[in-house]
Amino acid sequence: MADKKSLSGFKKDDKGVLWISNYVSNAKIKINYKLTALLHYEQSDYQQISIVDSVAFGKMLVLDGTPQISTGEGFIYNEMISHIPIVTHPNPKKVAMIGGGDCGNARETMKYKEIEQIHVIEIDEKVTEICRKWLTPADVFEKDGRFQIFHRDGFDWIQEQAGNYDVLMIDRPDPIGPGKRLFNSEFYQYVYDALSDEGVVVFQSGSPFYNQNTLKKTVKNLRSLFPVVRTYLMSIPLYPCGLWSFTLASKKHDPLNADLTKLKHSDTKYISPEMFLASFNLPKYVHDLIDE
């Protein structure tokens, strides 16, 4: 957890311009984001939460000094973590997501009218409250009776969900602080148990370039439980190095055989039937990495 007395990551240059800096130790890369304003800051029980207005990305959610998602490019992450597992499952009724307190992936999930329950599990109530004010209009969720949010630790919550969900989205943070338990080997078993017989899950699995250990361990843990495990990639401009991975696991269904006529892409900005399939075409070095 960040020091409660300091505002992590922020600095002003000699001209008084506000910047936020993101240093990635694994890659030895430091990215500076030019800001026009610090719109909101507070310390919750878990982390520092900021909303900033940036020159390149619009409004941005920052946790403990690290940019998470923005209004400028957040559609990429939210579309790719939600549409692919939903379309992979032939008839999803109950969907839940751990993390993603901005609820952008829940908003994408709402496009599928056949889904009956949409549950979000976010440990930090303040993240949801602040994102509703600054990033995601609250009325989107208030008008949809399928949506419900639970402010709980996802590691504890998942253990109570045996067989309850058709699709799970594990939008976990970096493996530090409270989120570290979402990378433990036993967590993968709890996720498997929480899925129905035809269940599908997707995990945020880091950069295939500078989070290679995270990706390798994710794939290894999932392959020990699921017959179908596939990593897919996307470009996230906000993140250092740009390239990011999700890893999908399924008890029965292969996303490469999914019925893409079900994909709700009329108003998406990133995903399309072509991008759905293309995202699974991995560079050779990523194939080599996850097949070691």
Report what the structure shows.
This protein is α/β, with parallel strands linked by helices and 292 residues long. The protein has 2 domains: 59 residues, Spermidine synthase, tetramerisation domain (Spermidine Synthase, Chain: A, domain 2, Roll), CATH 2.30.140; 217 residues, 3-Layer(aba) Sandwich (Rossmann fold). It contains 9 helices and 13 strands. The two termini are 34 Å apart.
User: What letter string, H or E per element, gives the SSE order?
Assistant: EEEEEEHEHEHHEHEHEHEEHH
Fraction of residues in β-strands: 25-35%
The level 1 CATH classification of the largest domain is Alpha Beta
CATH 2nd-level architecture of the largest domain: 3-Layer(aba) Sandwich
What's the pLDDT, averaged over the residues? 93
Approximate shape = globular
Catalogue the unreliable spans: 1-5
Specify the number of helices: 9
Distance between the first and last residues' Cα: 34 Å
How helix-rich are the residues, as a percent range? Answer: 25-40%
Query: CATH homologous superfamily of the largest domain - what is it?
Result: Vaccinia Virus protein VP39
Topology diagram in text:
Blueprint: E1 10-12, E2 18-24, E3 29-43, E4 48-54, E5 58-63, E6 66-70, H1 74-88, E7 94-99, H2 104-109, E8 117-121, H3 125-134, H4 139-142, E9 147-150, H5 154-158, E10 165-171, H6 185-194, E11 195-206, H7 212-223, E12 228-235, E13 243-250, H8 273-278, H9 284-290
What would you say about this model in short?
This protein has nine helices and 13 strands.
Notable features of this structure?
single chain; 292 residues; alpha/beta; Spermidine Synthase, Chain: A, domain 2; Rossmann fold; seven-stranded mixed beta sheet; six-stranded antiparallel beta sheet; 9 helices; 13 strands; globular; disordered N terminus
